[in-house]
Amino acid sequence: MSVYSIGNDLYSGRKSFKVIGLRKIWFGIALFAILASVLSVFVKEPNLGIEFRGGSQFTISNTKIHSHEGAYKVIADIGKDDAPRVSSVGSSGIRVQTVSLDNQSTQKVKESLAQAYEVPEKDVTSTFVGPSWGKDIMAKAIRAMIVFMVAVSIVLIAYFRSWTIAVGAIGALLHDFIVTLGIYWILGLEITPATIIGILTIMGYSLYDTVVVFDKVRENTTELRRQSKVTYEESANLAINQTLIRSLNTSITGLLPVVSVLFIGVGLLGAETLRDLALVMFIGMLLSTLSSIFIAAPLAVALALRNDDISSHTRSVLATRGELGHESSKDMGSKPAELGESDMITGAHFDDRIAGRHQGNAAQPKKRKKRNK
Question: How far apart are alpha carbons 361 and 292 in whole angstroms?
C-alpha cells in the first residue's frame, strides 16, 4: 500500500493503531528512560567540554598534516594531561584542549605543535578558558527553560482551555530534555554550550509537533457529549492516527538536513565544530517525535479521564454498547465495534456541514462519460 492510502485509512478510521490503549507501556518505557538518565548523574562523571571544566586550548592553522598523533605526543611529553582532546577544524586546522597550563608550559606546547605540524609558530594560537563562563551559560539556559515552560503552560491553557493538555505537553518536553541529556551522560558524549543550546532549540520543535496532535484531539472531542457512540479516549486515539503521517513527514523532513550536517559535514568533510549542535538536535528531534505521539497525548488523555463529565460519558457509551464491566472495555483506543465510517471520522453523527469534515471518496464529484455520437 502507498503512504497516501495508509494516510487515508488512518484518517478515516478504517485502520487504527492503538496508542492510547497501550499508554501504560509507553509510560513505563518513558519512566525507565528518565530514571536511567537521572541515576547516571550519580554513577558516572560527565564528559564536560572545556567551557565547563576550564583549561588551555591551542589552535593550529594552515597545516597540511591531518593526523592527531602529533598533538597527542606533544601533550604526553609535557606530562600535564593524560587525556587531551584533539579534533579537526575545517580542512587545515587542528584544535587541542588540555588542562590549565602555566605560561612556561603553554609556550613549550606552542613551539612543539608548530614543529609537529610544520607550520610557523604564529599559526599556533593559545587561549585560556575559565570554567565560570560555562557555568554562567548553564545557569542562564536553565532560567530560560523555566521561563519557556511557564509561558508555554499559560499559552496552552488559554488556547485549549484545558490544564490536562498543558501538563501533557510539559511532560513530553521534560522527557525530551532529561533523556537527551541522559544519553549524552551515559554514552560519554561531550557536553558543551552548543549541546545546551541544541536542547533548548528542540524544545520548540517538540512543542510544535505536540500542538498539532492536541489541536486534532480538540477538534474530535468538541461535540463529544452530543453523541453516545464514541468515548473521549477513542476520539483522542483517532486524532493521533489522523496526524500520524503528518508527524512522520514533518520529522523526516526536519531530520534530513541534520543528518546531512552530521554524517556528511562532520563525518566526511571533517567539520567537527558542527558536531555538538548537529548531534544533540538529531537525538532530540527523534525523541520529540516519539514523545508527542506516545507521551504527550496519552498523558493528557489519562488526566482528562479523571474528569467527572468525561468519565460519566464514557460509562454511558460503554453501557449503550453493552460493554460496561466487561474485560474488553479496559483497553480502549482501538476502533470501536459496529461504527460506521462517518462515526470514526468525526466521533459521532454530527452535521455534515461542519467545516473540515472529511467526506470520503464517495462524496467526490463523478466524471460524466462522454457519449459516442
Answer: 30
- Asked if 202 and 281 count as a contact pair (C-beta separation under 8 A), the reply is yes
Q: Report the domain count for the chain.
A: 2
Residues 228 and 88 in one domain: no
Residue 8 in any domain: the answer is: yes
> Which positions ≥6 away from 133 have C-beta within 8 Å?
51
Grid coordinates belonging to 135: 557555568
- What are the tens digits of pLDDT across the range 158-198? 888 888 888 888 888 889 888 988 888 888 888 887 788 88
Residue 180 and residue 99 share a domain: no
Q: Do 26 and 89 have their domain in common? A: no
Put residue 19 in one of left, alpha, beta given phi > 0 → left and psi -120 to 50 → alpha.
alpha
Whole-model pTM?
0.73
Residue 157's alpha-carbon distances to 146, 162, 355, in angstroms, are: 17, 5, 24
Of 222, 238, 214, 237, the residue nearest 166 (C-alpha): 214
Question: Which residue bears the cell 554562567?
Answer: 136
Residues 256 and 173 in one domain: yes
Q: Which domain holds residue 91?
A: 55-129
